[in-house]
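Researcher: Sequence recovery benchmark, item below. Answer with residues only.
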């Protein structure tokens, strides 16, 4: 009994009832159809033993394996896309005493491409193209989020009766830290650069998709061997051996699987190239669903044997012993020898005649005029010359005038004569020429836009304050769909480049310095990148001596970086000496006091007389006493 069948009937996390084992799980992974008892929703549960993850990657212990698993699932949590089958739940569970990690995903009603291929099915180019476009959309979404799927293969691509795709497996693959840890199945769809660094990448995802599409069409995966190391060694420096027999999809698939990751299409470019071919291919037929008959029943069905007719052997009249041979010469009669000479002469003449005819045919092979194939799809061009017996060679070239997959030119050219067995080269359009990304940093906004548009690129812009770049100049740019590209990189024409334009210096709000010490005020100005300037100290009746009494500009004003804020420290209240007003009339005394900034408060006695004393807050003052400027004194008359 298969140990995996023991999972059936178990409940995971108290809610997922395991119902049936689904074949096709990877090493140490069990895939089961299950049902979420909270709502009776059909789901798929993948189980992997914790022990199988120890020693992989950086997981040296079971605890590290569990933590790494959870961190990986958290990194893809919340990813949503119509083509992606994202994890719904995950965690750790013990089944029959063995610790497992589990991942729950929705259960798809369609059929995996792996099941179709295992049943001997092959897809048409139109069907494969639709699936490829859908998967490219999902990968482009993941790659924009900085996530590599890392496990693109037929078992993770599902199709429904509408021939549309769903991509599963996100966040589930157990990544190998070295090629020695990579399984044969992982290596089967791995890009060659993973031989030195097994970290999943966006470029490796695109390579795996090209292999998956090729397997959909042909049933084979090029360079696959019995181990991941040999498979990747076989792929090093090798172009994908796509045949033009699969139609115009061969051109974008070949570029998506270039041996150098830098030469490959991105998921967006691969999808766009496939989409351009959609109008040239017939409408895809619905993919026939698999029958309910099991695969085992199919391959073990007994067919009725039909005996083949046997030739009737001649019946010997008598049984005779085998002839005995002897090393002697037998002389034939003269008449018989003469008959043999005649036969040999006839045979020689016939042989000479046949050899002469063959030589003549080889020297006089039929020649045909090369037809005009420019502008027609590659597949039609192949059909047009198939009757002439030529060897067809394909060379890809970009063209702004000829659509993707159509013939640009032929060698020899149209009208030239070409014999049977000779080579004819079809130069096939690989799509529009690529635009070279210019560096527009430092250019004015208008010059940058003009430069990008002249290169065939579209432009979006945003504004950002910058202290070091004048307003209206470009401070940065980025390719919206491929943010890792730099100046000099090649992109498809029409690609959007987002430029960032300087809005000029960032304005700083002047802080309130009143009442602060000089050191504290300087610290606050430095924090907002403003400079300080100390003016002469001033008198202040409100601010203690040594603290800032005034500032210019006032708090809240806006200054650019390195703007100057002037301030003055307090000298304390201003004082004056009391002038001598004893013996003066009221008007004269008041005038003398006002001249030094002292004011008269109350008067007592006969004000028509002369001032007898001066008082302040009940205290008698004498001439020369120091009082606050602006203070009030009382005059006493007799």
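Model:
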């Amino acid at each position: 009994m298969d140990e995996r069948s023991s999972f059936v009937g178990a409940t995971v996390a108290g809610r997922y009832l395991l119902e049936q084992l689904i074949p096709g799980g990877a090493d140490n992974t069990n895939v089961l159809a299950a049902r979420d008892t909270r709502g009776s929703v059909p789901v798929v549960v993948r189980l992997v033993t914790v022990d199988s993850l120890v020693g992989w990657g950086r997981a040296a212990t079971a605890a590290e394996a569990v933590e790494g698993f959870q961190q990986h699932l958290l990194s893809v949590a919340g990813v949503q896309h119509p083509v992606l089958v994202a994890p719904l739940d995950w965690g750790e569970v013990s089944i029959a005493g063995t610790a497992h990690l589990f991942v729950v995903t929705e259960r798809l009603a369609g059929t995996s491409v792996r099941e179709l291929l295992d049943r001997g099915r092959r897809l048409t180019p139109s069907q494969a193209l639709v699936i490829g476009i859908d998967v490219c959309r999902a990968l482009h979404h993941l790659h924009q989020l900085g996530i590599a799927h890392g496990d693109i293969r037929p078992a993770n691509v599902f199709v429904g009766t509408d021939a549309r795709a769903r991509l599963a497996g996100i966040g589930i693959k157990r990544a190998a830290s070295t090629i020695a840890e990579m399984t044969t199945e992982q290596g089967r769809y791995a890009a060659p650069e993973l031989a030195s660094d097994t970290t999943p990448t966006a470029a490796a995802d695109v390579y795996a998709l090209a292999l998956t599409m090729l397997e959909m069409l042909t049933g084979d995966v090029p360079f696959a061997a019995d181990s991941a190391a040999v498979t990747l060694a076989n792929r090093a420096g090798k172009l994908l051996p796509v045949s033009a027999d699969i139609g115009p999809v061969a051109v974008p698939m070949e570029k998506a699987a270039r041996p150098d990751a830098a030469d490959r299409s991105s998921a967006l470019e691969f999808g766009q190239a496939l989409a351009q071919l959609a109008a040239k291919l017939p409408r895809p037929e619905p993919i026939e669903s698999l029958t309910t008959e099991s695969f085992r029943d199919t391959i073990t069905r007994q067919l009725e044997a039909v005996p083949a007719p046997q030739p009737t052997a001649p019946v010997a009249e008598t049984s005779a012993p085998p002839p005995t041979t002897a090393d002697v010469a037998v002389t034939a009669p003269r008449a018989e020898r003469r008959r043999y000479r005649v036969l040999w002469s006839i045979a020689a003449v016939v042989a000479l005649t046949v050899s002469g005819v063959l030589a003549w045919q080889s020297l006089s092979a039929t020649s045909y005029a090369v037809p005009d194939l420019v502008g027609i799809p590659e597949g039609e061009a192949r059909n047009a010359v198939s009757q002439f017996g030529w060897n067809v060679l394909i060379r890809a070239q970009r063209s702004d005038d000829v659509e993707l997959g159509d013939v640009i030119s032929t060698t020899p050219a149209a009208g030239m004569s070409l014999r049977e067995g000779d080579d004819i080269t079809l130069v096939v359009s690989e799509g529009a020429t690529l635009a070279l990304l210019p560096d527009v940093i430092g250019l004015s906004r208008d010059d940058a836009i003009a430069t990008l548009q002249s290169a065939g690129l579209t432009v979006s812009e945003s504004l950002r304050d910058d202290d070091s770049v004048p307003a209206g100049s470009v401070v940065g740019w980025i390719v919206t769909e491929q943010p890792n590209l730099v100046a000099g990189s090649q992109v498809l024409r029409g690609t959007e480049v987002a430029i960032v334009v300087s809005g000029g210096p960032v304005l700083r709000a002047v802080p309130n310095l009143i009442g602060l010490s000089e050191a504290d005020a300087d610290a606050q100005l430095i924090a907002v990148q403003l400079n300080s300037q100390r003016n002469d100290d001033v008198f202040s009746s409100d601010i203690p001596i040594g603290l800032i009494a005034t500032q210019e500009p006032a708090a809240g004003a806006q200054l650019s970086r390195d703007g100057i804020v002037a301030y003055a420290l307090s000298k304390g209240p201003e004082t004056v000496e009391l002038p001598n007003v004893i013996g003066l009339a009221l008007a004269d005394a008041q005038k003398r006091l006002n001249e030094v900034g002292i004011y008269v408060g109350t008067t007592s006695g006969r004000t028509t007389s002369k001032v007898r004393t001066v008082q302040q807050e009940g205290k008698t003052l004498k001439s020369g006493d120091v009082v606050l400027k602006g203070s009030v004194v009382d005059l006493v008359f007799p």
